[in-house]
Amino acid sequence: MIRERVDTGHSQYDxxxxxxxxxxxxxxxxxLNVKASSRHLIITDTNVQAAxxxxxxxxxxxxxxxxxxxxxxxxxEASKRLELAEQAFEFAYEAGLxxxxxxxxxxxxxxxxxxxxxxxxxxRGISFVQLPTTLLAHDSAVGxxxxxNLSGAKNIxxxxxxxxxxxxxxxxxxxxxxxxxxxxxxxxxxxGIILDAELFAWMTEQTPSILQNDPVAMGELLARSCRIKAxxxxxxxxxxxxxxxxxxxxxxxxxxxxxxGSGHFRHGEAVAIGMVAAAELSVNLGYCAPTAAAEVEAxxxxxxxxxxxxxxxxxxELIKSMQKDKKASGGTLTxxxxxxxxxxxxxxxxxxxxxxxxIASRRER
Length: 365
Ligand SMILES: NC(=O)c1ccc[n+]([C@@H]2O[C@H](COP(=O)([O-])OP(=O)(O)OC[C@H]3O[C@@H](n4cnc5c(N)ncnc54)[C@H](O)[C@@H]3O)[C@@H](O)[C@H]2O)c1
Ligand SMILES: O=C(O)C(=O)C[C@@H](O)[C@H](O)[C@H](O)COP(=O)(O)O
Ligand SMILES: [Zn+2]
Known about the structure:
Blueprint: E1 2-7, E2 12-18, H1 25-31, E3 39-45, H2 46-50, H3 54-63, E4 67-73, H4 82-94, E5 102-107, H5 109-121, E6 127-132, H6 137-140, E7 145-150, E8 153-160, E9 165-169, H7 178-195, H8 197-211, H9 215-235, H10 250-259, H11 267-284, H12 290-302, H13 315-323, E10 335-340, E11 343-347, H14 352-361
Bound molecules: nicotinamide-adenine-dinucleotide, the ligand O=C(O)C(=O)C[C@@H](O)[C@H](O)[C@H](O)COP(=O)(O)O and zinc ion.
């Protein structure tokens, strides 16, 4: 079992990574002093339930004397919306959840963001525990960004609400489809690019083992990638400065994800396109050598992720969407640019013309 600590100053918690942990959730809750006298709520999605990951959690809670209700959301990004959150609030209230209740987010980033948002708002905030079941969720489960979407924009309605713990059962990843594995790999690649050239080199070598879902490679990948995320969040919980580097690839990535249309790109796929474009922009603006951008593109291709922007997405719509990004102010464009593998810089006021050039160059051929 591996433990990493997040310490933001006012919030401290552990990320526990191991095998078979979903069957031990009851004991973890006891260690966290979660009260058995209150009712608790598991939020999961239809695929995670069908893959068999809910049953061990329920059995473990029951064995430890906990009573939990289950709220199942449809799998997919479309579930990150306010109307569904309202249904979850009603469900929680009817089930009698109180301020000592805990929400258990069992699933990938969609469940984590949604359930965390429900926990952040219910009775002005109750505790929640992240039980990640995707590779991508090494990123989403750590750091307390919880949110739902507006129809045309990602994560606009949300909060910073740190979990009580992140309990990561590597065995749960065994049922993950390859496309989801690749998508999650994109965020790990991002962590290497922004802060850890050695991790990036290791991922380059280990790509086949990672894509074969080898538990040893996966354990190391999760531990190293979570350590990077935990370090950044501990230093700057509310994105006053440094934390924005975690958004590398997301300025264009979020715009592409939203404008491509529902279900077209997974989050990590859109981020992959965004990372390659941000690297090209960095070369054009003189921030890095062409070899560094070529390394980013080669890694993204090795992971089997997309690198190009589909023809049906309009350039001006992309620019408009990026001007309303959470990192932007006053309608200007902010990008996280590459200096070299392992080092990035947050750059404000990037001229839209230079971004249009890169969009044109990164179009699907
Ligand atoms: N809060 C953050 O800091 C943060 C960071 C990165 C991404 N995100 C968000 O995370 C979301 C993407 O997360 P994701 O890629 O995990 O998506 P997801 O939660 O939709 O999971 C991907 C798919 O895999 C299925 N699934 C999950 N676990 C499974 C398992 N073990 N076996 C089989 N199927 C399983 C899900 O039902 C879904 O169909 C996006 O909404 C993104 O914006 C948030
Ligand atoms: O934790 C962060 O900070 C991140 O930026 C991680 C991103 O991978 C993630 O997609 C996050 O949800 C994006 O945040 P947003 O504030 O741009 O919505
Ligand atoms: Zn992301």
